[in-house]
Amino acid sequence: MYSMTMNELCNLLIKHNLLQENEDTKKWVQLAQETAGPSFTYLSYDSRDLKEQTLFFCKGLNFKAELLEAAVRDGVTHYLSEVPYAVDAQGILVTDIRETMAIVAQAFYQQPQDKLYKIGITGTKGKTTAAYFIKKVFDEAFQQKVALFSSEETTLDGKNFYASKLTTPEALDLYRQMALAVESGTTHLVMEVSSQAYKTKRVFHLTFETGIFLNISPDHISPIEHATFEEYFECKRQLLLNSKQMVINHDSDHFDVLENICQKEQIPYYTFGQKTGTYRIQALENPRCFHLEASEDTLEANGDYQLALFGTFNHDNAAATILTARLAGVSKTIIQNGLPQSHVPGRMNLLEKPNGTYVFIDYAHNYLSIKAIGEFAKELRPNGRVIIVTGSAGDKALSRRPDIGRALSECADVAILTSDDPGFEDAAAITEEIYQAITNPNLPVEIELDRAKAVTKAVEMAQPEDTVILAGKGTEQMMKVRGVQEPYEGDFHITQRLIRENQA
C-alpha cells in the first residue's frame, strides 16, 4: 500500500537539507533525479525485520556494521546512514539519521499525523494515568475511535490492546502505527511523549493539537539517558514548542520557565493546580472526588468530578484531562460520566486484607510518584503506618536511586528495599544506593532482594490501620535480569494469593 521511489526519496532529502555535501552524494543525486529508480515498500532499522524492497536506516551511536551486513545478505540494496559502510549496497549519506527517519516515515506513510487529532502528554509522573483518563473520556465522545500510545499499552483501533515496547515508539514505528490507526478509522490519538523521544528526535517535525505538561523533577539522569537535569528539562519542554496549545500544571516546579516560553512564542495555554492556576482543584470529603473552579470559566469546566482511582495526585491528572477534553469540544457531562469509569493498569490498584489493611499496587518508581502516593496514604489513614516496598531498575535512570531514598525518608514509616528489573546490574548494589540516600535515622529499613518474599513480609506484617505500598512493578509478572525476562508471580497476584490464603 505504501511506497516511495528513489526519485521521491532524493527530492525529500534535498527539500529538508538532509543530504551530506560530498562527491558521492552529488553522483547519487544526479542519478536519482534522472530516473524514478527503484521503489521501496518497507522501512526498517532492524536487520531482523526486513521485507522485499526494504529501505534500511543505520541508526544509533552504537550501530554495528554487522547489522547492515546481515541486512544486505537478506536482500537490502539501499541504506541511509551518517557514515559509509563497505557493503554491497548503495549508501545514501545524510547529516542527521534521526531527523531523516522522521521525515521519511511521515512522507512514506502519507502524512498520517495530519489525519489525527493528537494529544501529547509529558511529565515526570502521571503521563500514563492522564493518557488513560483522556482515552476513556474521548472514547465516550468519539465512538471509541481513539488510538493510544502509552508506556504500558498501545491500541491502534481504539479497542484491541497490546503491550508497548517504548513510551514513545521510534519514528519508523510511530508513523507506521499512526497509518494503521488511520486505516482502522480512528480520528484521535492520545500519546505519552517521553524526554527521550525529543532527545532522539522520534517526534521530530510532529505538532500536537494539544500538549499537556504535568510536572517536572529530576529523573532519567544517567550516562545513557540525560547527562543533567537541565538536558532532561530542555527535552521535556520541547513539547510546548511543538503544540498548538498547552495545558499546564501551575503547581509544577519551574512553571515560570514554561509560562515564559508560551508567552514568548505566543502559544495559548491553560493552567490548573491544587495551590495555584486558573482552574483550582478543591478537595471534597470523598477522596475520589474534587471540585474544579475558575473565576473566569472560559472553558466551561467548573464543577464536581469523581474518579475510580484513589489519590489526590490523580486530581491533577483528571484536571488536565478535563481542560484537554473541553478544548477538543467534549461536553462536561461526557467528562463527568467518563472519568469514574476510567481504570489504569497497574495504577493505584487497591486490595484489602481481612483485617482492614489497604494494599496499593502501583508503578510509582521515582521521587515524585513515591512521595505522592506515600503522602496520600498518610492522609487516608493518619493513625496507621505507611509500609513501602520498592527498588529501582538497572541499566538506566541512576538518579532515581538517591531520589527514592529521599522520598522514603519523607513519607515511609517502614521501608523494604528489593529487586526491580535489575537488568545487567547487581540488585544488591542498587538497593545499597537507595539505602545510603535515606536520611531519616528513625526509619526502619530492611533489604530483601527476593521480591516475592519482600512483598509477603510487608503484607503479613501490616496491621488494620496500616497502608502497604508495593511500588515499581504494578501488575507486571516478569523480572528483567541480564537480558532475560524471568517469570515473577507479580505484586498484585502475590497479594491476592495471601489474602485468599488468609481467608481459607
List the helices and strands and how they pair.
Layout: E1 4-5, H1 6-15, H2 23-34, E2 39-40, E3 42-44, E4 54-57, H3 65-73, E5 78-81, E6 90-93, H4 97-108, E7 117-122, H5 127-141, E8 146-149, E9 153-155, E10 161-163, H6 171-183, E11 188-192, H7 195-199, E12 210-213, H8 229-236, H9 238-241, E13 246-249, H10 255-265, E14 269-273, E15 279-283, E16 289-293, E17 303-306, H11 313-327, H12 332-338, E18 349-352, E19 358-362, H13 367-380, E20 386-390, H14 400-411, E21 414-417, H15 427-436, E22 445-447, H16 451-461, E23 467-471, E24 478-481, E25 484-487, H17 491-503
Helix pairs in contact: 1-2, 4-6, 5-11, 5-12, 13-14, 14-15, 16-17
Structure write-up:
There is one protein chain. Strand 15 and strand 16 (289-293) form a beta hairpin. It is built from 17 helices and 25 strands. It is 36% helix and 20% strand. The protein is α/β, with parallel strands linked by helices and 504 residues long. Strands 10-9-8-11-7-12-13-14-15-16-17 form an eleven-stranded mixed β-sheet, with helices on both faces. It has a six-stranded mixed β-sheet with strand order 18-19-23-20-21-22, with helices on both faces. A four-stranded parallel β-sheet has the order 3-4-5-6, sandwiched between helices. Helix 1 crosses helix 2 (23-34), helix 5 crosses helix 12 (332-338) and helix 13 runs parallel beside helix 14 (400-411).
